[in-house]
Design brief:
about 675 residues; alpha/beta; Na+/H+ antiporter like fold; Rossmann fold; Alpha-Beta Plaits; 3 domains; six-stranded parallel beta sheet; 30 helices; elongated
Length: about 675
Amino acid sequence: MTDHNVLSDLLLIFAISIAVVFMFQKLHVPSIAGFLAAGALIGPYGLNLVSDLQQVNVLAQIGVVLLLFTIGIEFSLAHLMKAPRLLLVGGPLQVAVTLLLVTFGGVLAGLPYNHAIFWGCLLSLSSTAIVLKALAERGESDSLHGRAAIGILIFQDLAMVPMLLVMPLLASGPEAAMGSVVLALAKSAVLVALIVTLAWFLVPRLLEHIVRSRSRELFLLTIIVLCLGIAWLTSLAGLTLALGAFIAGLVISESEYSHQAMAEVLPFRDSFNSLFFVSIGMLMDFRIVLAYPWLVVALVGAVLVGKFLAAAGPVLAAGYPPRTALLAGIALAQVGEFSFILAQEGQEAGLLAREPYQLFLAVSVLTMAVTPSLIQLAPKVARRAEAFQRLHHWFPGRTTAHLTQLGSRALRIKDHVIVVGFGMNGRNLARVLAETEIPYVVLDLDGDTVRREAGHGSPIYYGDATNPSVLRHLRIEDARVLVIAISDPFSARRTVQIARGLNPGLHIMVRTRYLRELEDLHQLGADEVVPEEFETSIEMFALVLRTYKMPQDFIIQKAEQVRREGYALLRRSALPELAHHIRGGTLTDVEVETCRIEADSPAVGKTLAQASIRPRTGASVIALTRGGVTESNPSEKVRLELGDVVVLLGTRDQIRRAVGLLAKD
């Protein structure tokens, strides 16, 4: 009779995991924590619903192998060297500081030195999956602190490989002969090198023949066989399957088929990975937590604080400003998923007893669970820390030191443009400003970029735009325009708020990635906000029209029409009925435009009735924005003030006459 126990166990595991993870997602708790909780619920210390733990663990090990395999495929020296300071300074320092802190604390607590070092390895890793997802959801992956956190995470992923290699040395303990352990490691290294060398020559040729068959199924089977086969051969050398899978991925990463291999393996990896975390959760005994509640709470606090300090310090040492170090440190304060792999290896090697293993699981899950909330609160903590820093003069001159060095004398500039951020947008803007001889200065937080461009004669300075003293040094009081072209939403909002307070008459333009940021930026004081999401949609329909051979002037006209109508409606969140007519095409001859009331406008101080906009031009005032508040269909008795934004409806000629009436004598 066929035994269907494994199938029923898997069905039960995935069904309960779906329910638990769905609930955790609604509570904004990471999926990994949900899988661990689901495992604890159905495991032997919970409801004991799974009959064959051994079979589940075997399948879970496949998840670990596939995870390390994809990490190996993603390994790229070119990608790593995009953040050399973090790879050569920040990442190694973070791992080393955590190792030293935990090892020192473990030895003081009475642990053998090899066990203390092993605990240091466990706690030095952070969760790549959780941090990347949290940063992506907040649009902060390209921000300075996002790049710093990702750079350190990459180094941590790579550091796990030598940690796996030294596991036999740690497990041997002080009584083992060092020579024999080193000799065994050397033999393993030679065998691994032999396997890698053979694979390096054979795998690309094999994949080339497989690809020529044009069979997707054959290609997938070949990738799986290479992954499991190289992992198995490496295990024969005395090393782990996980390390062998990483080597297999590393071999394939250098071929032109690596992207397709990754795409084929990802669905299997995600499914088996979820099974791995569920299997870890099955081993969790909550009775340990109930037996030592205060110890668990203390350990969670110690891990969060210790990992924060161990990450923030190296980011500072790599040359990043304090706010970036604080945000990156908070993002990396949890225990990572790779720590579970090390923990299992350590348990098998005798480095981790049952109760300590249970404490480790509890502490890890709790640190993972609170990470999204900590990242959400991080900007507020950073803002208060900045205020405290300015009040007590911590890190004196940290964000202004390079300004002082690069500009030894006070800037003598007026009516200039301040460009914050020297990425693609900032670089193109600076080039156009230089060609048109409009005075400008650039502010950036990448020290290497600042030194390089300053050496070429560019008016660029190192500094944090959220620091008022930095903006004052750039003479923001005398500037005409501030352009914020950075990818950090928090910094952009903070810079707008500070700049508006320093210069109420400043024209502030902000680049943002998402439409959802638009209204907040306007309320903080931004005059113009350019959401990349909206501009991309315009570019896409323009490309489609070009494909259909539409005339260029027609495409430009449509793009201008959509841009005017879209920005007017997006900025003011106004008039859904009007938006409906515009989208429906029933007002094809009608346009919407905004006009800001400046100091030299003849309409300042006049009511709408006195301005006689409709009788004199034919255009209608459909909304008026003042202080971030929009009033639809304003009364004729409303008196126009400096800074008001008038929303006009009419034909192109009517709007042109109305803007002329409001903007000049």
